[in-house]
């Protein structure tokens, strides 16, 4: 059997660990041929397909990014895209596909699986917002990077007694903001799930200054003021209909300055959160997902996705992920209310 692998959507640390797990077990234990598709769904639509051997995955475990490349190409947006994928895979002799992606890439996988393609999904994203799994790999690394940044920002904020706003990734969900904000001792954490009140934010900032500490405000890029709109980088949309975010951090610093009469600055962490070597936890989780994904292929259990439930890796229907994201539960957010202000 020839098994194809593709990585789609925004990259994240741990993708190479999944690829390595699939290649090692697929070849060593099951005698499969493994083929890499370049640049996400683009490779499935047009090729080329590269053969992946054990020697090709040596040394990639600690490497960030993806050796296969990625894109936000959406075959469902192209006339005859599904047929083109089917024909291209057949032309390259690919019998089954492991698709490593977030909600968008897996949504396509679910649709194609419904149309008869033999697909197993693996969830990834630094945002941790894929439904059905407790965690995605990439998230732990991103939280570590954001936490270290917050730790560093505390000392400079206090030297100048000014507010420092830290904008982190998180288009639809505030998992990175919440985890890094709590780990880094932020005084305000703002997430997309809960529109924020700018008056309350300024109240928290002022109360922090009253205790002679400088406030750190962590905001997810997708957070929205109660009276206002999502702040966008520009209005262009990708093939999944997403606009480019970023800007809420700058907006907040401006509002805080004007409303409180104190100084504020913004740090946007951006793609630093997605780059570089995966944490030990992400390498561990990604490796397990790779091994379990190739087991599912071997079992002919198509239309499923690997998922972490507690400490177990299980298979869930790919359909479960479709068109849905896993939000931060407001009651979890409320647990940390005591630290705000
Ligand atoms: O999907 C993960 C994510 O990190 C989002 O939080 C962010 O909005 C997006 O990727 C940015 O991706 P890109 O710059 O690659 O378009």
How do the helices and strands line up, and which of them pair or pack?
Elements: E1 2-7, H1 15-28, E2 33-37, H2 41-46, E3 49-52, H3 81-91, E4 96-101, H4 103-114, E5 119-123, H5 139-160, E6 163-168, H6 175-183, E7 188-190, H7 198-210, E8 216-220, E9 232-237, E10 243-245, H8 248-260, E11 264-268, H9 280-299, E12 304-309, E13 312-317, H10 330-334
Parallel strand pairs: 1-2, 1-4, 4-5, 5-12, 6-8, 6-11, 7-8
Antiparallel strand pairs: 2-3, 9-10, 12-13
Helix pairs in contact: 1-9, 5-6, 7-8
The structure holds 6-O-phosphono-beta-D-fructofuranose (F6P).
Task: Explain this structure.
With 341 residues, the protein is α/β, with parallel strands linked by helices. The chain has two domains: 2-137 and 278-320, 3-Layer(aba) Sandwich (Rossmann fold), CATH 3.40.50.450; 140-275, Rossmann fold (3-Layer(aba) Sandwich). It is built from ten helices and 13 strands. It has helices at 15-28, 41-46, 81-91, 103-114, 139-160, 175-183, 198-210, 248-260, 280-299, 330-334, and strands spanning 2-7, 33-37, 49-52, 96-101, 119-123, 163-168, 188-190, 216-220, 232-237, 243-245, 264-268, 304-309, 312-317. The strands form three sheets. A seven-stranded mixed sheet has the order 3-2-1-4-5-12-13, sandwiched between helices. It has a four-stranded parallel sheet with strand order 7-8-6-11, sandwiched between helices. α7 links the parallel β7 and β8. α7 (198-210) crosses α8 (248-260). The protein is elongated. It starts with a strand and ends in a 7-residue tail after the last helix. The structure holds 6-O-phosphono-beta-D-fructofuranose (F6P). 6-O-phosphono-beta-D-fructofuranose (F6P) binds at residues 10, 102, 125-127, 169-171, 221, 245, 274.
